[in-house]
Endonuclease 8 1 (Streptomyces oceani), 269 residues
Amino acid sequence: MPEGHTIHRLAADHQTRFAGRPVRAASPQGKFADGAALLHGSVLHAAEAHGKHLFLDFAATGWVHVHLGLYGTVRFGTGPVPAPVGQIRLRLSTPADWSELRGPAQCRLITPEEKAAVAARLGPDPLRSDARPDSAWARVSRSRSSVAALLLDQQVIAGVGNVYRAEALFRQGIDPYRPGRDLTRREWDALWDDLAGLLRAGVRAGRIDTVRPAHEPEAMGRPPRVDDHGGEVYVYRRAGQPCLVCGGEIRGATLAARNLFWCPACQPR
DNA sequence: AGCGGATGTACAG
DNA sequence: TGTACCTCCGCTT
């Protein structure tokens, strides 16, 4: 779940529920107790996402930098704050709304300079209006690394995770092991555009759909399969099963310690 | 009850 | 390249 679309959705939700009002802040779990104490009573100015990083702007107090990592989640609710259940790193609330952050890899107060440093380490994020594929292409077109590795490198392109990687490469018919520098500009632009569309659909739907995403009702081939994670996908976690388009066997492999899935027939060398 | 695995990253070596 | 770390869920016993 926590790929770029999740974080952009979280930014929008924080903005809607909390911006412009002073919030109560607490860390029932205690791991962010000092930060929560500083935040308590301050006003959320804005929330923004860059790739998988979430930034909450509490102007006077500083920025909260959140990275969900593999396990982190945020839950929102309305009305009175429920009694804490389990480990809650950060809870924000107003009289009307509350949020609970659990299990983040990162939750810390940072200065504007530190925030800029985080952003400087990230490649363009297709979900941000300021993003263009050119700077990513500059890296991709010079790299001997596989396009599969490049898509997960947040310094090349920010926000793509393991599910979107597998699905976008499948949809574009690109072999994941092809070196970045062997891609054509046309192929990269198509990959970028597809990722941007899929991510945007993911923000709206709140889940990863790549077979029938909201912006594109037609499926490419056979009927979709609902993934364990609640979305419809072509190849992610489908190793050994038949390809929904050609019927061939989906392959699975480990590449740089991450699970990779692809259809050798639809994504030829 | 206990284990293994996961959509991510950062570090060590 | 391996390992540690966040935490939860589903599977096995």
Summary: Residues 1-3, 6, 52, 67-72, 105-106, 152, 154, 161-164, 208, 229, 236, 258-259 of chain A lie near DNA strand B (CB under 10 Å from a C1'). The mean pLDDT of chain A is 92. Chain A has two domains: 4-120, 133-262.
